[in-house]
Amino acid sequence: MAVSDQQLVYVVTGASRGIGLEYVSQLLQRGHKVIAAARNPQKAKGLTSLAAKYGDALTLVTLDVADSATIKAAVASVSDSHPGGVDVLINNAGISGTIVKSSEQTEEEFRDILMINTLGPFLVTQAFLPLIRKGSKKQIVNISSTLGSIGEEAKMLGPEANEQLLVMASNQVGYRASKAALNAVSVALAVELKKEGITVTSQCPGWVDTDMGSSASDTLGIDRPPLDTPTSVAAQLKVIDGLTLEKSGTFFNHEGLVVLY
Ligand code: NDP
Fold first, then answer.
1. Ligand 1: which of 11, 12, 13, 17 to mutate, most ligand atoms within 8 Å of CB?
2. 79, 180, 203, 236: which one has the fewest Cβ atoms less than 10 Å from its Cβ?
3. Which N-terminal residues, if any, form the signal peptide (predicted)?
4. Residue from 258, 206, 210 nearest 235 by CA
């Protein structure tokens, strides 16, 4: 087991499967303490088997990012179990919604996506701030998407567009808007919290073969996601390891390259 120099406390939301579960697994392998937050952690087989393997290093908490009561209860329980605070909060939970043309996005689903992908991580961050202030690393990472990059999307109006990119780009307006708004949340918090030594970034995991990542391929008949979860998360952790306060407010991809907002 590669134990890093310092044992840190990480909170990962949406830890039941996909990228979130892989974050939990790799952080535990590195010897850190992890609080895995999920809607139904006891029903997530991946999490319960990690709990059996790692014991006290892993704490499972119930947290639905769309339900403020569960956020408050989770923070109260983490305050008791980890009185020294939280070093890194990874706001990973998210939904893509149905893969439909932007012109066909329903109001109800658009609201749900904004709740889970934008307001949810904002409320989680607000609630965990007192614990992050106590921690030593003081990092907040919002898992975003290059699909939320207005700058990248706008390129599809110019000569860079090709048929496959146009099919992808004309879909998922709710998801794109939610991640663009999440990026705005990252920058607003980065500006306010810098004086407290708290780093806030947005980070895209790349296109990863998870339930979410593969749904676009299946629905649109396009290529499969090129990245598996271990590769994406190992790369993302390198980016997080390298974060400094000077980089606060930046939008990174999984390789640490800066993405346009
Ligand atoms: P998955 O669909 O595989 O997993 C999504 C996770 O989010 C699950 O753990 C799910 O929990 C959780 N979740 C959904 N709604 C809520 C909620 N209301 N409260 C708490 N947890 C919730 O997706 P990925 O692992 O692929 O995605 C993880 C993050 O990465 C997301 O933010 C996504 O937008 C982002 N991303 C993913 C990309 C990809 O290619 N996969 C590309 C770019 C960004 P449950 O099991 O309870 O449903």
1. 17
2. 79
3. none
4. 206
**Does ligand 1 have an atom closer than 6 angstroms to the CB of 46?**
no
Of 24-28, 88-92, 126-130, 212-216, the poorest mean pLDDT is in 212-216
| b/e 82-99 (16+ beta carbons within 10 angstroms → b) | beebbbbbbbbbbbbbbe
Q: What pTM does this model have?
A: 0.97
The CATH number of the domain where 174 resides is what? 3.40.50.720
Looking at the domain assignment, is residue 260 inside a domain?
no
Domain assignment present for 76? yes
ipTM reported for the complex, 2 dp? 0.99
Give the pLDDT confidence of 174-231 residue by residue, as tens digits.
Answer: 999 999 999 999 999 999 999 999 999 999 999 999 999 999 888 888 889 999 999 9
Count of beta carbons in the 10 Å neighbourhood of residue 78: 22
Residue by residue, what is the 3-state secondary structure of 64-82? CCCCHHHHHHHHHHHHHHC
End-to-end CA distance of the chain: 37
